[in-house]
């Protein structure tokens, strides 16, 4: 009998511990991440010298490992000014930044003592570029994200690797590790580098490359425990192989709204790093509309920039960031202090909802004709205006059966041409009381008034 009691107590304790862990995850996300809306992703590394694909150009054997690493001889960081970067990101309205501290190629941006393959020891630049970046981020009171690749295709003990590597052992000191297996040495290396990076107290760990091994091989659980030990408030992306806090769809905007916290990462052209021959830049309108779609579905947009080897950001990217920033500044009421908008079917376009649920923001991608429709709103409407233009719009309700709780359709007049935004026009619908939605399937009205 006593054994049974102990057994049930253990189960209850385990369930309670699980619930506490889940609550902690939610609390960590809600502390800042779920309200951030916009982050800047920075892919900066050797690959920008030749203008080739980061790391993957080796994987697909478009360049040898030796020639890939030779790019370091021209990675100068000579015009690198992280304060200027952060001034730009702040103007755009970004709340966090994520820098690639080490991609799959193994090149570290900081002065790691566990590898000689770093900007400090191996590149022409001969300097730590991570520390001043972190300092610039902290000056702006923005959240710091550090990208770290779990796989390291230059490490002599890492497998699988699709290309030949020469003389890589001299790049990775391994004194006192001779009795360890190759994989034990590699996982110890990962833990050591992560501990080095933990000195910066990142608010976000952005992992990548987890698909190449199982979580128990990466020791994902142990990594997560270490990260939270170093900083109990940190947030971890989904690519720690089953131990992340939020989802990270990439390059293709989700058609169905993801459940829980999520972030969409996207390039401005077709490449993450600096790629001077890639001029296939997304139009400003597409970037702004993507941002609106993402935040309207409750996610964050992590928009990428790829600085040049000298540390300057290409003008084509600056132009798009500034345009996005101007749009956000004009519509900041709808962007910040809002949450995911209405479910599908109430409005033909993205929407956002104020935190107190008394205002709906309707996002118009195209110039409307005749009138604008909003369906299923039970509340009375106080006013409707064009955000940023402050034009008040007339409206009326058509159809429905109020005595049967069927609200009908809210028909809104079309804004004046001068009130329309060239990219996305936003209407603010101010409700009486907290939003009440009609979500019925419709039915026969059996009693008319």
TrEMBL record:
Specify the domain of life of the species encoding this protein: Bacteria
EC code(s) of this entry: 3.2.1.51
InterPro entries associated with the record: FUC_metazoa-typ, GH, Glyco_hydro_29, Glyco_hydro_29_N
* Signal peptide feature range: 1-19
The record, for Gene3D superfamilies, names: Glycosidases (3.20.20.80)
The keyword Signal appears for this protein: yes
What region holds the Glycoside hydrolase family 29 N-terminal domain? 20-331
Which parts of the sequence are marked as the site May be important for catalysis?
Answer: 265
Q: What's a Pfam family in this record?
A: Alpha_L_fucos
What are the GO BP annotations of this UniProt entry? fucose metabolic process; glycoside catabolic process
Q: What does this protein do?
A: Alpha-L-fucosidase is responsible for hydrolyzing the alpha-1,6-linked fucose joined to the reducing-end N-acetylglucosamine of the carbohydrate moieties of glycoproteins.
- Similarity comment: family membership: Belongs to the glycosyl hydrolase 29 family.
The protein depicted here goes by the name alpha-L-fucosidase
Name the source organism.
Capnocytophaga canimorsus
């Amino acid at each position: 009998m006593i054994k049974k009691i102990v057994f049930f107590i253990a189960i209850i304790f385990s369930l309670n511990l699980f619930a506490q862990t889940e609550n902690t995850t939610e609390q960590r996300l809600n502390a800042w991440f779920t309200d951030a809306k916009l982050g800047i992703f920075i892919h900066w590394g050797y690959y920008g010298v030749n203008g080739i694909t980061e790391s993957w150009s080796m994987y697909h054997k478009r360049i040898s490992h030796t020639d890939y690493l030779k790019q370091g001889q021209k990675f100068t960081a000579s015009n690198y000014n992280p304060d200027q970067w952060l001034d730009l990101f702040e103007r755009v309205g970004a709340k966090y930044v994520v820098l690639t501290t080490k991609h799959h190629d193994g090149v570290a941006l900081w002065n790691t003592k566990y590898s000689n393959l770093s900007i400090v020891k191996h590149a022409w630049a001969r300097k730590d570029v991570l520390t001043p970046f972190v300092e610039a981020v902290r000056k702006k009171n923005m959240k710091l994200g550090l990208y770290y690749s779990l796989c390291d295709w230059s490490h002599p003990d890492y497998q699988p690797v699709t290309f030949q590597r020469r003389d890589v052992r001299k790049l990775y000191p391994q004194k006192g590790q001779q009795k360890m297996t190759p994989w034990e040495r590699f996982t110890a290396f990962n833990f050591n580098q992560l501990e080095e990076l933990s000195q910066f107290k990142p608010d976000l760990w952005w992992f990548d490359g987890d698909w190449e091994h199982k979580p128990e091989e990466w020791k994902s659980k142990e990594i997560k425990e270490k990260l939270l030990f170093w900083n109990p408030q940190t947030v971890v992306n989904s690519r720690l192989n089953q131990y992340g806090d939020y989802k990270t769809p990439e390059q293709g905007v989700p058609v169905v709204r993801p459940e829980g916290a999520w972030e969409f990462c996207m390039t401005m052209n077709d490449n993450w790093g600096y790629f001077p021959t890639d001029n296939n830049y997304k139009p400003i309108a597409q970037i702004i509309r993507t941002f609106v779609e993402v935040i309207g579905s409750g996610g964050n947009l992590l928009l990428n920039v790829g600085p040049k080897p000298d540390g300057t950001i290409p003008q084509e990217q600056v132009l798009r960031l500034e345009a996005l920033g101007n749009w956000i500044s004009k519509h900041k009421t709808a962007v910040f202090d809002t949450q995911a908008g209405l479910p599908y079917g109430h409005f033909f376009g993205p929407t956002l909802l104020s935190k107190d649920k008394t205002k709906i923001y309707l996002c118009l991608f195209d110039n409307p004709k005749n009138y604008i429709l909003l369906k299923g709103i039970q509340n009375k409407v106080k006013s409707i205006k064009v955000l940023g233009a402050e034009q008040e719009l007339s409206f009326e309700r058509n159809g429905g059966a109020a005595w049967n709780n069927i609200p009908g359709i809210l028909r809104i007049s079309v804004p004046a041409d001068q009130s329309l935004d060239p990219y996305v026009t936003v209407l603010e619908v101010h409700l009486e009381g907290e939003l009440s939605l009609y979500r019925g399937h419709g039915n026969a009205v059996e009693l008319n008034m």
